[in-house]
């Protein structure tokens, strides 16, 4: 019996000691921040600002750059975050967008006294530079932010196209069961608009992402279909897309004009957007 | 002997579960520090400010919500199984869960924010009660309901609710869809004190009040006419249990989303140990349900820390196979269930 008590006491002491050991890093020097970007697009900006080594955790949508994708620990998916897990990383600042949530979890983090910043979502490519500046300002690297923002703004301005009658539709595909067309209010639409092409989805009245039907697609009359790399792969390449209902009847299907770009490259609206615009234009025109 | 020990053992389990859940998690807090933060005893090393915030603002409301929800779901399930005289009954059978899903889906997809962050919860609560009421009144004929009709209207209401959720899923955009899907998996991660305080009275009411129907439910086991001869009023019994279960379950799912299996499996487990006497079954189910949901939540919080697994997935993942095993075993021992 005595031995049991001694063991229990030892366990208790050990557990308490563990608790303290974990608490230690809070005394880290002030200059180094402990950043937790709550969403993948913010993570990309943080890395572009050269602050990747100060990130202590990322969400599962942080896929670019490779260091962000490889970063451990993962705090879960941006829409299903857990307050305690994030607090356990002892961040000095967490930055998210309105997409980060659930809302209660964001409140919990704030209430725990952690600086919590929410950066507005971009609606057009012209918001990208301001977004970079905002994030840089929050992280205390305004000078670097201005520099990067100016560079990105110039790349975007250079890549923007003059208007063209080519009708482009963005398809979000995940396997044969999930095929949606993008419309107004989507980031894909913002990208297509910036290239000067006509967004076939938006002009035929699609709002957000809608499941495609043969008729809706025929009404949109796209000349070119844009997919995400992973989406194209999930359906078995161009041949798979041609088998989707209605695709074969569109000008894009008839001419087999189906192109794809990497997911975060096309949709993050961040530091790589200028180059993504250029690629998108080249692929659509090519 | 087993029966006499059941409640004390379950209570001890519950206490252990509460203590472990308060202490364990992504943020390490030693047991002495837990005591210190809670009671200000000055024991152990002084806790860091972050630790006490985590304990008091995040973990404590979560543990409270978890225990109350588990207790309420399990006791509701046990009472409904009694009232329906059907071992498959659980809080979902009166349509309250599927109705709540419609409410939540509607508010998420339409984008309602009339009551701020609590809107989805209130909509879920309203939807759950509405579905239960529709089911009950559709089954009521000349002032009384009949069990089979009640079960079938529950099935019908759930089917209609499922279709309505389908419509909202169709209308939902990408972001709403994800929110919706996570809602259906259930989570206790959004527990905050204001939310817990709002639902606690209803959860406590049904958890405490349902066991008082135990003697009536025991009589009902003999049959409806027999129960009436014993001086009970089956119709009043039914409406009492249904209203209490709907209120409690509706309140629970409005905050946590759908958490499956607690209401179904716990009563069966207890029945297996303690027999069918509702006087023991109901309170024991409440305590057992609280302990089980705390255990499931502990796994949900720590298995993939610092991220989190939806608790509904854990309860179904543990509860499902366990239930299957019980079924197979009882089939082998007695040639059938119950």
Describe this structure in words.
The complex is a heterodimer of chains A (286) and B (338). Helices cover 47% and strands 13% of the residues of chain A. Chain A has 15 helices and nine strands. In chain A, strand 2, helix 5 and strand 3 (115-118) form a beta-alpha-beta unit. In chain A, helix 6 packs antiparallel against helix 7 and helix 8 (187-195) packs across helix 15. Chain A starts with a helix and ends with a helix. With 338 residues, chain B is mostly helical. Helices cover 76% and strands 1% of the residues of chain B. In chain B, strands 1-2 form a two-stranded antiparallel sheet. In chain B, helix 3 (49-84) runs parallel beside helix 8 (193-209) and helix 3 (49-84) packs antiparallel against helix 11. The longest helix of chain B has 36 residues, at 49-84. The model of chain B has no long low-confidence stretch (mean pLDDT 86). The A-B interface holds A 12, 15-23, 26, 57, 60, 73-77, 79-90, 99, 101-105, 107-108, 111-113, 172, 180, 208-209, 211 and B 23, 25-33, 44-45, 48-51, 53-54, 57-59, 117, 170, 173-175, 178-179, 182, 187, 189-192, 195, 301, 304-308, 310.
In the CATH hierarchy, what is the class of chain B?
A: Mainly Alpha
SSE series of chain A: HEHHHEHEHHEEHEHEHEHHHEHH
Instruction: Give the biggest sheet of chain A.
Output: 6 strands, mixed
What is the global morphology of chain A?
Answer: globular
Summing up helix and strand content along with how strands pair, one would put the structural category of chain A as alpha/beta
Mean pLDDT of chain A: 87
Organism (chain B): Rhizocola hellebori
Transmembrane segments (chain B): 62-80, 92-112, 118-138, 150-172, 198-221, 241-274, 280-299, 311-328
Main location (chain B): membrane
Protein name (chain B): ABC transporter permease
Summed up:
The complex is a heterodimer of chains A (286) and B (338). Chain A is of the alpha/beta class.
């Amino acid at each position: 019996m005595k031995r049991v008590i001694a063991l229990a006491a030892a366990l208790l002491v050990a557990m308490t000691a563990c608790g303290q050991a974990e608490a230690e890093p809070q005394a880290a020097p002030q200059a180094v921040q402990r950043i937790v970007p709550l969403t993948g697009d913010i993570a990309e900006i943080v890395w572009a600002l050269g602050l990747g080594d100060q990130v202590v955790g990322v969400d599962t949508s942080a896929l670019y750059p490779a260091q962000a994708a490889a970063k451990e620990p993962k705090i879960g998916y941006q829409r299903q975050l857990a307050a305690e897990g994030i607090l356990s990383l002892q961040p000095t600042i967490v930055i998210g967008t309105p997409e980060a949530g659930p809302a209660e979890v964001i409140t919990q983090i704030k209430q725990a006294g952690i600086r919590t910043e929410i950066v507005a979502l971009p609606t057009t490519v012209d918001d990208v530079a301001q977004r970079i500046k905002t994030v840089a300002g929050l992280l205390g690297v305004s000078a670097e932010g201005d520099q990067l923002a100016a560079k990105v703004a110039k790349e975007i301005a250079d890549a923007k196209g003059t208007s063209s009658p080519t009708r482009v539709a963005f398809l979000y595909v995940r396997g044969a069961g999930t095929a949606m067309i993008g419309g107004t209010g989507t980031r894909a639409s913002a990208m297509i608009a910036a290239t000067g092409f006509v967004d076939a989805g938006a002009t035929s009245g699609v709002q957000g992402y809608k499941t495609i039907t043969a008729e809706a697609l025929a009404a949109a009359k796209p000349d070119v279909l844009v997919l995400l790399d992973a989406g194209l792969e999930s359906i078995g390449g161009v041949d798979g897309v041609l088998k989707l209902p209605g695709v074969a009847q569109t000008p894009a299907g008839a001419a087999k004009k189906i192109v794809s770009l990497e997911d975060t490259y096309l949709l993050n609206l961040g530091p790589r957007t200028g180059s993504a615009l250029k690629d998108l234009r080249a692929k659509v025109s090519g | 002997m087993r029966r006499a020990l059941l409640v004390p053992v379950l209570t001890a389990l519950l206490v252990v579960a509460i203590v472990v859940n308060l202490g364990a998690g992504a943020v390490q807090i030693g047991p002495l520090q837990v005591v210190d933060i809670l009671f200000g005893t000055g024991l152990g090393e002084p806790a860091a400010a972050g630790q006490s915030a985590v304990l008091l603002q995040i973990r404590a409301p979560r543990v409270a919500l978890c225990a109350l929800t588990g207790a309420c779901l399990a006791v509701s399930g046990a009472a409904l199984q009694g009232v329906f005289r059907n071992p498959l009954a659980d809080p979902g059978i009166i349509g309250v869960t599927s109705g709540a899903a419609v409410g939540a889906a509607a508010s998420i997809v339409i984008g309602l924010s009339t009551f701020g962050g609590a809107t989805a919860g209130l909509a879920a609560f309203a939807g759950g009660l509405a579905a239960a009421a529709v089911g009950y009144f559709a089954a009521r004929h000349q002032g009384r309901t009949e069990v089979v009709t009640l079960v079938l209207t529950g099935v019908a209401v759930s089917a209609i609710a499922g279709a309505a959720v389908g419509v909202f899923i169709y209308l939902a955009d990408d972001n709403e869809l994800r929110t919706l899907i996570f809602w259906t998996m259930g989570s206790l991660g959004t527990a905050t004190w204001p939310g817990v305080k709002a639902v606690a009275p209803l959860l406590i009411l049904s958890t405490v009040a349902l066991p008082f129907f135990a003697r009536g439910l025991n009589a009902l086991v003999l049959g409806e006419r027999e129960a009436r001869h014993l001086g009970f009023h089956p119709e009043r019994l039914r409406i009492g249990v249904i209203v209490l279960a709907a209120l409690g379950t509706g309140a629970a799912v409005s905050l946590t989303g759908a958490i499956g299996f607690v209401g179904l499996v716990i009563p069966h487990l207890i029945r297996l140990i303690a027999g069918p006497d509702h006087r023991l079954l109901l309170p024991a189910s409440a305590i057992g349900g609280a302990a089980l949901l705390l255990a499931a939540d502990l796994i949900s919080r720590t298995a993939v820390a610092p991220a989190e697994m939806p608790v509904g997935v854990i309860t179904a993942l543990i509860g499902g196979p366990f239930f299957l095993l019980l079924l197979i075993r009882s089939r082998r021992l007695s040639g059938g269930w119950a």
